[in-house]
Q: What sequence folds into this?
């Protein structure tokens, strides 16, 4: 059974970013409020890989308009978006 | 943001204001983007910034909107402004009609088609051509983003914010405007401490000014004339300078977004160290960040999300990237259409976007695959520096090549220019290799310092140190206003954004105003002028006062740039009617600084110099305009001639009239049709020369019939083009003499040295000092004719 708490999702996202997207950063670098898209940390290819990872690890589906600062500009927002989707499911 | 944070530091905002005033002074005194009206907008920006910052937060968005309205009235006048806001509000209302979303999109598309008929001139509305490019620059992309975001809005957006998104103040002087994202616009408004956003804005404006100045240096010293490219050094400069000219765009974008930051919109950078990108994906992400974000949001992710499951992630990314570049090409044509009024469909454009797209696709695939394998251990600093420099040099070099293709008229022309690369001598190649090695060595050194963390972060340094901004502006001002510069370097020549070299998409879009046709078209739309239903097309408005090109301008009751004057003559006073174009009208100098006004003072009350000159009038228009001058019963009709300008203006006039199907007097109609039927430039020039000779004959004959002495004077302009031609000043003088003019040539007007010191721009419009010099030469030169008239 997946742990679908905010903290767990956020930690997973942090680990993914630290290992797969920017290997030279520690997971702690990506705190809940650090801007990812608007700061340029998360580019389009990294974003595509991140949502592929999230969709693969949980039964959720993202829509194109959600890949934006409005929904995914920091780890906290990403975790909340996933939680909202899980609540919808 | 909270009000308490706003009030926490009372010194910081004052320092920011001082820095802003310094930057505004730099923009004004250095004539930064003067042709686009930026210096005219700066007082409004500074005053608006102060009032805006003092207002409670809830009123600030409304005030920002009000500034847009005031700026619009200043730029376009009440009627033009009403058109701009009327059309804009109608488009915005269509987005919110109480009908299904797809139907709303259909309504917006229909309205856009209606506006397109205005833009191509199928339907003519007076003043529309001046307003439509700005309306388009506000709506042509932002409306797409707005419509895309509309169904997904999560929070209610106030009406003033929606309006402010479209009617942004800096847009009034920047038709080529960064594609600001709606979500970022609303979500970034005072999201952090006010002064931090304001400082970032001032810093970016200063950075923008330095980019524009760097562009001027490139266009003045690096850009070779395409026709003069004949060896590998020229080819290298041609390629390098074409790409470097993008500095003007990044400068304009920094200034525009910097201004938005002044009003609390915490927007990201528009361009970031793009010349240093070490892969094509990196270049794409840095060179125009807003454009990349716009297409990423509206094209890239929708395509990727649609195909990733069927095609897999890598193919999905490739398809999305291809779609982005196809759309990017189409939208650049779309932008061209709205700003230029023409459809852009050229082989070089297709090829450029195709090759750029292919490079980014390859780069993206490499990046994706690299992400799937464990990262290699980090390289030692020197090796890392070498690898980075190699990547940057490769991307920079290839982009220069690709950009030069984009700047070329055709693939054949591009190959012809590249062909000169074989004309090099060993010494030339040694110099080229030496420069490349030196640049690479410097690149490795800088990269090494960067890897070691020894380079400062310039962006944050600028944002955190407003004093530095002020000092930077002051240095710019001191340096650029220095009266003398060594050798042939004229900093005054650096006061205009124009170039003679590779003219790429952006140069063409913003308009380098190098041709008479463009000059005339621009003048048709200036508020100091009004349309004329005769051959002149435009004329000065009567009794008007205002600012033209940043200088006080006024016309008298007869539509002349002169003091009030009676048609009836004063007994005993010799009356001289001066005919001419923009140099005589005093383009880019304040009223009273133009040489006819100075001569009027020099002669004293016994001689009247009446200034009938109007900008962008060729000799042909002056034939018609002479009727007004002759109504004043002058003793002398003084026609001021300049060679290249007259030729360009005459050619442009004839071409425009015939192409638009507008009637010309029969003699000119024949000449114009002949000109257009000529296949080679030389024959076409000869026909244009016929028009000039005909105009001279008409003017001289009409003056003599009215009892006035027709006097032709050649006034050299302070450009590097003098002596110009063909036709040369000798040719022109010969034609004037044959037509019945007395003739006069001013020589050595600007003393020794480079005359461009006395030019306001590359077209050679004289500075106030140069007007004084012309008056000092022309007043005594005119004395024999004045004396002759007195004797009679």
A:
């Amino acid at each position: 059974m997946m742990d679908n708490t905010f903290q767990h999702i956020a930690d997973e996202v942090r680990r993914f970013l630290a290992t797969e997207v920017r290997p030279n950063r520690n997971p702690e670098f990506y705190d809940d409020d650090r801007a990812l898209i608007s700061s340029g940390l998360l580019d389009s290819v990294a974003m595509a890989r991140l949502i592929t990872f999230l969709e693969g690890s949980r039964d959720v589906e993202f829509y194109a308009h959600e890949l934006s600062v409005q929904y995914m500009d920091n780890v906290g927002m990403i975790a909340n978006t996933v939680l909202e989707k899980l609540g919808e499911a | 943001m909270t009000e308490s944070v706003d009030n926490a530091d009372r010194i910081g905002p004052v320092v920011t204001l001082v820095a802003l005033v310094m930057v505004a002074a730099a923009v004004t005194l250095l004539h930064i983007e003067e042709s686009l009206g930026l210096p005219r907008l700066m007082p409004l920006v500074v005053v608006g910034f102060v009032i805006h910052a003092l207002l409670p937060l809830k009123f600030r968005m409304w005030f920002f909107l009000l500034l847009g309205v005031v700026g619009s009235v200043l730029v376009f006048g009440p009627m033009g402004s009403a058109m701009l806001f009327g059309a804009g509000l109608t488009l915005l209302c269509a987005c919110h009609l109480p009908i299904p979303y797809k139907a709303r999109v259909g309504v917006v598309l229909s309205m856009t088609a209606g506006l397109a008929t205005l833009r191509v001139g199928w339907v003519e509305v007076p003043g529309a051509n001046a307003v439509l490019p700005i309306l388009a620059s506000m709506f042509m992309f932002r409306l797409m983003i707005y419509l895309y975001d509309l169904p997904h809005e999560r929070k209610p957006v106030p009406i003033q914010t929606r309006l402010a998104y479209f009617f942004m103040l800096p847009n009034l002087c920047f038709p080529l405007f960064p594609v600001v994202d709606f979500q970022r616009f609303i979500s970034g408004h005072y999201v952090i401490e006010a002064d931090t956003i304001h400082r970032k804005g001032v810093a970016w404006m200063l950075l923008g000014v330095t980019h524009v100045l760097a562009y001027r240096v490139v266009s003045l010293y690096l850009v070779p004339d395409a026709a003069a490219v004949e060896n590998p050094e020229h080819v290298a400069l041609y390629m390098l300078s074409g790409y470097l000219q993008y500095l003007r765009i990044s400068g304009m974008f920094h200034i525009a977004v910097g201004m938005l930051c002044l009003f609390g919109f915490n927007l990201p950078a528009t361009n970031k160290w793009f010349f240093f990108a070490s892969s094509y994906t990196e270049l794409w992400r840095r060179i125009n960040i807003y454009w990349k974000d716009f297409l990423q949001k509206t094209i890239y992710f929708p395509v990727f999300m649609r195909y990733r499951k069927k095609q897999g992630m890598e193919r999905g990314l490739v398809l999305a990237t291809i779609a982005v570049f196809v759309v990017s090409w189409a939208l650049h044509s779309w932008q061209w259409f709205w700003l230029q009024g023409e459809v852009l469909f050229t082989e070089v454009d297709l090829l450029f976007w195709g090759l750029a797209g292919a490079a980014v696709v390859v780069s993206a695939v490499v990046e994706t695959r690299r992400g799937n394998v464990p990262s290699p251990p980090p390289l030692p600093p020197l090796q890392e520096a070498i690898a980075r420099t190699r990547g940057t040099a490769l991307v920079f070099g290839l982009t220069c090549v690709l950009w030069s293709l984009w700047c070329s008229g055709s693939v054949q022309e591009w190959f012809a220019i590249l062909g000169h690369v074989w004309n090099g001598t060993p010494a030339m190649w040694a110099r080229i290799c030496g420069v490349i090695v030196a640049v690479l060595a410097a690149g490795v050194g800088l990269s090494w310092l960067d890897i070691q963390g020894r380079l400062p972060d310039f962006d944050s340094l600028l944002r955190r140190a407003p004093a530095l901004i002020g000092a930077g502006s002051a240095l710019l001002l001191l340096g650029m206003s220095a009266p003398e510069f060594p050798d042939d370097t004229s900093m005054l020549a650096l006061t205009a954004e124009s170039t003679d070299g590779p003219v790429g998409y952006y140069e063409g879009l913003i308009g380098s105003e190098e041709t008479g046709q463009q000059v005339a078209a621009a003048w048709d739309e200036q508020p100091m002028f009004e349309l004329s239903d005769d051959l002149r097309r435009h004329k000065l408005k009567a009794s008007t006062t205002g600012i033209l090109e940043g200088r006080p301008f006024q016309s008298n009751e007869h539509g002349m740039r002169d003091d009030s004057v009676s048609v009836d003559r004063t007994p005993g006073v010799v009356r001289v009617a001066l005919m001419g174009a923009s140099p005589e009208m005093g383009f880019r100098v304040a009223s009273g600084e133009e040489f006819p006004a100075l001569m009027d003072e020099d002669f004293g009350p016994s001689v009247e110099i009446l200034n009938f000159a109007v900008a962008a009038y060729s000799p042909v228009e002056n034939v018609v305009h002479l009727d007004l001058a002759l109504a004043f019963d002058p003793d002398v009709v003084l026609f001021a001639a300049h060679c290249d300008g007259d030729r360009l203006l005459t050619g442009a006039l004839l071409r425009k009239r015939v192409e638009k199907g507008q009637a010309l007097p029969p003699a000119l109609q024949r000449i114009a049709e002949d000109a257009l039927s000529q296949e080679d430039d030389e024959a076409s020039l000869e026909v244009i020369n016929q028009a000039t000779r005909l105009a001279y004959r008409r003017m001289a004959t009409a003056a003599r019939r009215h009892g006035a002495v027709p006097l032709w004077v050649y006034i050299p302009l302070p450009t590097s083009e003098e002596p110009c031609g063909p036709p040369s000043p000798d040719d022109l003088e010969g034609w004037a003499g044959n037509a019945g003019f007395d003739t006069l040539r001013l020589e050595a007007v600007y003393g020794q040295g480079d005359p461009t010191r006395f030019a306001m721009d590359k077209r050679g419009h004289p500075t106030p000092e140069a007007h004084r010099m012309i008056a000092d030469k022309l007043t005594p030169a005119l004395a024999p004719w004045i004396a002759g008239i007195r004797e009679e």
Summary: The radius of gyration of chain B is 29 Å. Chain B has a mean pLDDT of 83. Residues 381 and 448 of chain B are 6 Å apart (CA to CA). The first helix of chain B runs from residue 3 to 8.
